[in-house]
Structures are given as C-alpha cells and as structure tokens.
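@here heads up, posting the sequence + SMILES for the fe (ii) ion run so it's all in one place. Ping me if the SMILES looks off, I pulled it from an old spreadsheet.
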Amino acid sequence: MLAQIRLAELIGALSHALDLTGGQIAGHCIRTAHIGTAIGRRLGLSEAQMHDLFYTLMLKDLGCSANAMRMCEIFDTDDTRFKGDFRRVDGTLPSLLRQVFRHAGARRSVAGRAKAILKALRARKHAAQLVDIRCRRGAEIARQMRFSEDVAAGIRHLDEHHDGTGRPEGLKGEEIHIFARIALVAQVVDVHSAHGGPKQALRQLRARRGNWLDPEVVDACLAVLAQPGAWNDLKAPDLDQKVLAAEPGQTIILADEDYLDDIVEGFARVIDAKSPYTAGHSDRVAEITVMIAKELGLSPAECRMLRRAALLHDIGKLGVSARVLNKPSGLDPEEWVEMRAHAAHSELILARIPAFAELAEVGGAHHERLDGRGYPRGLAGDEISLATRIVATADVFDALTAERPYRAPIPPAQALAMIRETAGAHHDPLCVDALERAWQRESAPAAA
Ligand SMILES: [Fe+2]
Ligand SMILES: [Fe+2]
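bot reply: prediction finished. Complex structure tokens:
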C-alpha cells in the first residue's frame, strides 16, 4: 500500500517534466508558481481562487508536448531548444527573426537551411494552430486530473494577450481568465530573469505592459519584485519546498489511490503526445506489465504500483526532441546520447517524490539488461529489480509490435519469438514465460 501523497508535492515534482519539454531551465514551473501566487495575493484573490491559481501556474505547460512534432516539421529543428528560446521573443520582428534564423534547419547544409528558413517565415498561419493544440490539450488533461474549469481556462488562455493580439482566440482584457493573465506575467519574469537577470525581466515587463500584459497584473508584479530579497528568493536552492509548503487553500489535499491513478494517467498522456510513434505507448506498456505481473502471482497492490511505474517509465522522454524520437533512420552518436539520457531523466523526476522510490528505480533502469550490456549504468542480474524486469519486457514487446519511423509493426508471435531468443541475456526468462502464457491466453479465441 502506497503512503498518501500531498497533491502539491506530486504536481510540483512532475512539473519538472514539463520544464524539460518546454525547453525551460529546471524549476521554471515552480518559480512561476512562486511569482504568480505572490501576484495573486497582491491582487486580493480569495483563498479558493489562490488554490486554483497555484495549480494553474504549475500545470500551465501540460499541453506543451502535444505540438512538439508539428513544431519540428514546420521549423525543421529540435522542438525543446526552439521552445525554450521562443518564449524569449519579445513581440518585435527582429527578435522573432533572430530565433527563426537561429533554429530553422539548424542541422542542414547551407542550402537546406535557407529552404527551412523560408518555409518557417511562411508559416505564420501555423502559429495559431501550434498554440491551439497546446492550449486545448493542456486544458483537457487538467480536467482529466480533476482540476476545475477555472484551472482549465487558465491553461487554455495562457497565450492570449491583453490587447487581443494573442492566440488562439484573440481574446482581450478581462475576456482572458485572470489566472492566465497572472501566469503570463510570471512566465515572462522567470524566462527573462533566468537568461538575462532581473534588469532584462523588468525591461520586458515594462515594454509589454498594456499590450501583451494586463497593466494591473504587471503593477502588482512590480510591487512584488520590489520587496527586499525577491530576486534572491527565486534562486534559493530550497525554493521547491518553500513553494509547496506555502500551498494556498484551507486544507492540504492528499491524493488517494484513485486520484493518484488519474494524475499518473494524465502525465502518461503528456508523455505519449510527444510523437505519433509513442502515441499510446505508456498505456500499452502498463497493460502488458499488469498482464505479466498477474501471471507471476503478484498482489493487486504490487500490480497497481507496477502499472504506475509503466505509465511513467518514459517520462524523461519529454526532454528528448521530437525530431530525434521521430527520426526515420539511425541516430547519430549525439542523438543517441540525447535518447539514452531519457532513462536518467525519468529517475531524477520520479525520485523527487519519496513515495515513488520504486517507480524512480524502474524509470532509471528499464533499459538495463541482465547481461550488463544495457544503459545507463550497465547493471546486471540481481542488480535489476523484478519490477524493472517486468516493465522492461513489456516495454520491448510494445516497441516491437508498434509502428516505428523506420519499420512496420512486427506481428506479436514474431515479437514474442524475438524476445524469447534474448531471454537470460536481455530479459528475465520468468518474465518472458509469463508474457507468452498471458498473451496466448488473452489472444486465444473465446470458447463457443
Ligand atoms: Fe525508455
Ligand atoms: Fe518505453
């Protein structure tokens, strides 16, 4: 039985995965929550509003992975790096052109780059589509995680601008949810101060006051930032704990087992949205994992833990560019380094939640092999837990039977035979046996 987990602790830890996919400096969502909640208090929001604002700020980038693939196609570049830099565009043409010239076709020849830049410059109409995908998906996932319509609206309106020049709906002034107006101001402060220091952030706030940004919210933010120690607080190593300890609301919310499942399933959707080739992967690995675990006689509580571990095993893939995830041919050495890093990222993110220690272990070790030839640590034999071996077998079975950029899906019987060949070297023979038995039973025609 898992211990009960504070909702804020869970969301705060998982928000680090959203920083990865948004190409932001680690801790961006937490710092945005710190600044945004101070603005909300200054504006006199009620305690119930403050509670919803707090979660809007931490989850504002929930839809960020959903447009990653489309962004790679339009700009012919790495979505994570592009997104990180694009948030620093200040609305002026030179700043927009700077980012397009820097990123479009960055890995191509001179001629290829020129073509990519021209394509990107003609892509204005796609910008609204990219924002729409992100905001809509983010709001949907927030609802799935049982957050209120206000939280969903705050996420959906994040890219709307006070003067009506934003997207996707071109809303103006108070038509934009107050949570989104606060989140945008807090985001501008963090993105610019993290890269250029307080002066750059203040310059941006003043330049955008009344056009992109609500002037009343900017004024509240300037008052917050004028407090002694305000800028130093943003760099405090224990900011995560401070932000979570100051969670607004009358009571601390604990996630019970069912709610925990909803949050984990929501984040699995964020992971799988990154690429058409990973769509549904986390869900299917979870289903196959539970089949193997039940076949091995594990208890319902262990099966539930394993299902969560499987749903989140690839959370570190949010830090891998969709360009790499979708590459139709072999990866070059640099791209392999990026791809392989996802296991370590999964472990780091999940280890932020003490009650998820087992999930962190699975996330970090699901590409290890019994013969020690896996990654990232080259663990061997008993150094790899049974939970990890189960998820690893389910992971490979789904990878083989799913379509890949470079090949068609492999039929299940052939995939099982391929896994069987590596039993004892890559996979645990017990897990392979269990998978074969369970798969044969599940796929056998029902008795007449
Ligand atoms: Fe993986
Ligand atoms: Fe996987």
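MO: The beta strands are 5-6, 254-255.
MO: One more: The mean pLDDT is 88.
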